[in-house]
Design goal:
Layout: E1 2-10, H1 14-23, E2 27-34, E3 37-45, H2 49-58, E4 62-65, E5 72-77, H3 87-98, E6 102-107, H4 121-127, E7 132-136, H5 141-146, H6 148-151, E8 158-161, E9 175-177, H7 190-216, H8 223-230, H9 234-237, E10 245-248, E11 251-254, H10 258-266, E12 269-270, E13 273-274, H11 275-278, E14 279-283, E15 291-295, H12 298-309
Parallel strand pairs: 5-6, 5-7, 7-8, 8-9
Antiparallel strand pairs: 1-3, 1-4, 2-3, 10-11, 11-15, 12-13, 14-15
Length: about 300
Amino acid sequence: MFEVMMYDGGVYRSDELFEMIEDVGGVVLNKNRSAQMLIVTMSIPGEDKAAVKKLCEAIGGTVKSVPLAGTEIAVVGPTLGRHHMPHPICDIAEELRRYGAITVVMGLARGRGKATSQISMKEREIIEEYDAAIFMMGNFKSCIEAKTDIIKDIRTPLMLVTGPMPEGLEDTCEAIIPGVGRKTERMRLPPERTKLDEIADRMDEILREKRRTIEEDPLFVHPAEVKQLLEDYEPIDMSLRPAPIVLHLDGLRVKIPMKEHYEDLYNVEVYGRKLGEVASISESKINDSSTLIRIKTRSQVEDEDRQKKA
């Protein structure tokens, strides 16, 4: 089981840290340097966590756990209107960022109304591009229970955040967190901050379970290794979009058009194979300016090799 940690300290002796990460079989997920200060987000084997932490402290840095690093999470409200997009949605998204996740806030086109709310197939497909999703439904128990179809059959880990505790929705999502309804002010009070921590901790548990499932049939290559290969690709390096490469648990989102760059991405060499042979490359449902790369498992690659030989 890999652990994600963040080093915050100086550049001095940082080469020792990078050498240790490589020696233990870890991966650098993100690296930000500002003058003589350095922030490194890394994924390392759990059994080596103590040794890496000891080195970070020895070279004058601090270490904290960011368990959601390397994930992208959608926080969804029924609509983008003032009635459905209150401050708690933004507070939840910000709390997840503090845990290391990349978050996206979105609203449904026709989520308004107890009897008329709906979700389109395209909206489901967009939500399923993310590692997980959080739906925030509001303050009315009967309204939440009537909107079951909105969250049903979405094929990505799902958390429901509500005011009251709904009944009969346990089988439609991985977790239900009550006690966070619509309100017109930020969540600043100690009980509210505790509730935000509860949401983030529960999301961590959900994604840990997803990681364990992936590790039962490991990916052919770690997404962070593919990220390192793609960072030198000029269109990505020249991209002005924030976080042009976003890590997922099972792949990456690359913020360049697929139609223009498919061949170049397909032919990137990964352990003697082409990236297109060990991953599926597809266009994002959000728009045509992003590309999704889903890395195949080792067993999938082996099965495809056997089929080609047959």
